């Protein structure tokens, strides 16, 4: 086994030097494959693709047999660095300056992957676990997310893999390590509001029907009244328009069609179907018979979900408090993550580094946070397998049957 593999800082530096900008693998998964295989893991590299999409490489590695089975999940792909000259330190050099590690992916989320592997290898040095540990690593989280975790999970299920619990290393903390754990996420729904009018000359509006008027009216109707005031475990749902597209290069021409794209982040008040129905009722109440409109709904794979309280949540919170001295807030805030796929296979909690600089120029994390996060993951492993009987649960089919 490479000596650097047990050092989260050294392993993170090697990962940051891999230009794994979505969907490129960039050497990151190859590095992890070598580390995990040398540690005794059964490692699989899988490439998935669909027509019209770039193929994506993924990795699954497991050691041990039976349950309880704890999965560490994450992604090695990163967003582009932008203008490299705007960075104080090269985005793919993994430099340490003033006790902070700089690089694209330091926070989101190569740093957490390095910490989970270092913690696991330290755990395995004491002997095999009374169960299984695996790594589910994708190269498609920052992209369109169709050739990554969702298909890797399907592949694992088809070969009989059963997961009991998962830790996803997304950067959940807001200010300091240990201040927040994600126990769920809101759902997400995209749509395009389309209003149809009649093209004509701006000097003769009576001969035309300007769809911009209708678009503005309907946008106001959808945005004016709050969707809800939140629920016990989720903040309020919100609808945001993100673009208005008329495609009219001529200033004296009334267009025939006007469009506006929007996104809704919704809580457990709604399903996709009930949310769509509500918005269409609101739009129709304003449009009545005067505006010709429709909404083009995009398929969505992000439902609102919540991991219920219980031994797993308590154990993870306790481990974080033991190491950091902070009791984290249980949160469902923020955007979507690959947890939206994992939750269909096992309970999943998200805990990683502080996310303040993720996706920014000069993304970085304190070296001390990498060391401390490794200690948190190590404590989770220790307690998880110390109380293995507590975390052995029904298989996936039984969980689904119980929920019906």
Provide a quick synopsis of the model.
With 404 residues, this protein is an alpha+beta fold.
Question: What does this protein look like?
Answer:
It is a single chain. The protein is an alpha+beta fold. It has two domains: 3-185 and 304-403, Aminopeptidase (3-Layer(aba) Sandwich), CATH 3.40.630; 187-297, 2-Layer Sandwich (Alpha-Beta Plaits), CATH 3.30.70. The chain contains eleven helices and 19 strands. The chain has helices at residues 8-16, 28-38, 110-124, 149-158, 211-224, 272-287, 311-324, 339-342, 367-386, 388-391, 396-403, and strands at residues 42-48, 56-64, 69-75, 96-97, 100-102, 132-138, 165-168, 180-182, 184-185, 187-196, 200-201, 238-245, 253-254, 257-266, 292-297, 305-306, 329-331, 348-350, 364-366. α1 (8-16) packs antiparallel against α3 (110-124), α3 (110-124) crosses α9 (367-386) and α5 (211-224) packs across α6. It starts with 7 loop residues before the first helix and ends with a helix.
- Structural class based on helices, strands and sheet pairing: alpha+beta
Total beta strand runs: 19
Number of helices: 11
Report the span from N to C terminus.
46 Å
The largest sheet, given as strand count, sense and whether it forms a barrel, is: 6 strands, mixed
Secondary structure: helix percent:
25-40%
- Average pLDDT number: 95
Strand residue percentage? 15-25%
Q: What's the structural domain tally?
A: 2
Question: CATH topology of the largest domain, anyone?
Answer: Aminopeptidase
User: Outline, from the CA principal axes?
Assistant: elongated
Q: What is the CATH architecture annotation of the largest domain? A: 3-Layer(aba) Sandwich
Low-confidence stretches: 395-404
CATH class of the largest domain: Alpha Beta
Query: What radius of gyration results from the CA coordinates?
Result: 24 Å
Q: Which oligomerization state do the chains in this entry correspond to?
A: single chain
Strand order of the largest sheet: 1-2-6-3-7-18
